[in-house]
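Endothelin-converting enzyme 1, Scylla paramamosain. Tokens?
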Amino acid sequence: MERNTTTTTTTAATTTTTTTTTKKSKFRIFKTTGNFHNKENSRSELLTTNDEAISLKPATATPTTGTPTTPNFPSTTSTASSLPEAFVTEPPDADTAAAGGRDKDLVACNGINGVKIVKNCRSRRRGERCLWCNVVSLALISVALLIYIVLDKTRPPPPAPPEVCTTPSCLRAASRLLDRMDRSVSPCSDFYMFACGNYLDANVVPDDALYRSAMQEMEEEVLVIIKKMLDAPSKSNETEAFGKARRLYHSCMNTSFTVHEKDTADSPIFTLLSPDHLGAWPLINPEKWDPNEFNLEDLLAKLALYQVHTFFEFYITPDERNSSMYTLQFYKGTPALARNYYLNTSNDEYAGYISAYRALLEETSVLLSHEGILNHTHIDELIAFETKFAMISDSRECEAGGNGGNLTETLDLDEESSERMTVLQLGQLVPDIAWGRMLRHTLQEFEINLDVESLIITLHCSPYVPDLIKLIKDTPDRVILNYLVWRFVLRYMPFISNYFQQLWQQFRSEVPDPTEERTYISRWKECAAVVNEGFGAALARNYVEEYYDSSISFKIDNLVEEVRTAFHLVINRQDWLEQEMKEVCNDKLDIMGKKIGYPEYIESAELLDEEFEGLEILEDHFLNNILRMKRHEVWKELKKLSRPVDKKRDWLIQPLVVNAFHNPAANEIILPLGILREPFYNPGYPMYLNYGSLGVVIGHELVHGFDNHGKRYDKHGNVSQWWSEDMAEQFTERAACFVEQYSQYPIEMVGKNVDGNETLGDNICDNAGVLNAWLAYTRWREKNGAEPHLPGLNYTIPQIFFITFAQIWCEVVSKEGYEKYSKDMHSPGVYRANVVAQNSEFFADVWDCPVGSPMNPEKKCHLWV
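Tokens:
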């Protein structure tokens, strides 16, 4: 490489600057070893100038004639003080000229002056070596800099900050998530408190409810919407059905018809309590009661017309053996209050409940009695009878219950204690009750002509029947009549008048009903709830027109299919399932139906009006309207006995109910309008929020078809043995882990633990549902790409998914609510969040929870994951 070198030579008279060009470096090191400044090495190295070697051997100086030459060594400069010492020499003297123009020290280097040889050669070589060090250092720095520049240009740019969603929907969602969280709690210590801690601190249980929860808040919002729709002026295109709903609401809100009517015999309640209807009530009219006119079956049939269930509860559901047809299901009855209130006499609190119940009975009888007489004897007999009734109905097996999110509780059967037969066969088996006469009386009220004796009936908990018959035989008819009529009055007490409604609310504020979610204190809430119960389809049509984007149903349909596909993947990876069983399970899942939003028929005003044809709603007394509405509902149910199941039209659930359901007899899930709202679903949300809430709910409901109840129903909704014995045992073994696990958790305030057997089905579905939803979301993200984060939440997408899921179960619970949990098929919210987290390896990975931490125990329960 060519190099330009500028040399400045200073003499006594002038300074000359000369620029020379050389082809290669002036000094070449042939070999170096060890320390460059080592004396031995310095003496042994050969330094060359062009092709001429400089040797350290002694030589004879040869005088030179002609023009003096300057060796090609660094010369002194006027700036010598700024150069390294090795490159500085003194000006030439006379000895230099005598040596042919060469420096005498240079001559000495050839052996003339040994002292000078050591001193000056070392000085020169040290300078040369320092120069080389600098050159090498600069070269290395240049190479390093070049490498850095190249790498910097080829290195991918640092990841950009995640995109943040700032739409109104995202801002609301972020605010809600943050408001409920307590970030001072470690998610690996108590995930429920981490996700819900602030919610628990900021809320209390309302006076008219057992809980304060996300779903309860949604119910409140739906009631507000119903009120607004019913309060709005009527429209020209309003359906007749909605007009009836509006009149029912107005009659409920019209307090001029709900005054205390103690002094008038024109009140509907007095008409009903007459010999021409239910019969004279001995408790208030002992002199008008005729023992010869009493017939138990006729009275039970009359009570059934108004949906008053006492000794028996009956439902009309698809046949367990042929789900395409309807049949009657008879369950044992229950007393008016929770059974343990009557039976646990050592509990002072329960004793107080019975005292309040007795006081309500006494005041009611005085108010409805024309003479205002209080009959203590009759009341004592009534309470004593109901206590005995509570004793024979104490067993929880095969008991009909509420629908609390899973219709299997009502529609499921207990094979060991249920009997399927015709009404004729039932009469022969249990002749003490005239079953045919009772059913015939009810059907004739609606002019429904059926061959009663050939109707299929399933009698559940058959051991209860002989105990009931014995109790009835041992009890005077007067006591039985008093009790049955009292149950009617109690059922409709809130609708008799304002005064009776206040009595009822006061009683319910003192005595909780574990079978009911709430007792409304606000009049408008009570009225809105009653209208939704009877005219839900008419309200849903208006709701769809005013509040619902029809495209949402299509999007949720896709959401269901994504979760269904994820569950297929889960089924296929179950190593305990035989391949044939996997195929059967996948087949059932494939054809599992889905009902989203509302039944299609409500879009037709004509079909909707037909649904309420024959039902007269007038703006007269509210109780009259309620009674007519209840009879109409019974009529619609009884008509099912004469037609096949219409899966498309028969929804079983009102559209504005805030919940989701699985119907095993139809092999379908139901997602009503009421739950297709924030915070469970919003089309403007990032999908990880929708999958973390509604997706989890969908996953839960799909798994119900394969839990300990749903697995008894085949793909057509018929009860059958479609599981092999070995596979059923494998299932039971894995399910037993959940029973043991959940049974160890206490229920606050009541001194009991979760019933792991009673809650098994929903516990299985909770655990599997979350995994199904997350797998479905990952598939969605692969097809659609990453999504923006929420503002203010410094968490990963999987972490936000889990927070969203946990906040479904944020709840503040009253003591009565915990009492309900002790008998409920669902676990308390804290366990629906925490135990699912504990069983999930994915959760532990997402939150980096060490093994052995509270949320990542070593032992986990798995089924359908």
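The longest helix spans residues 114-154.
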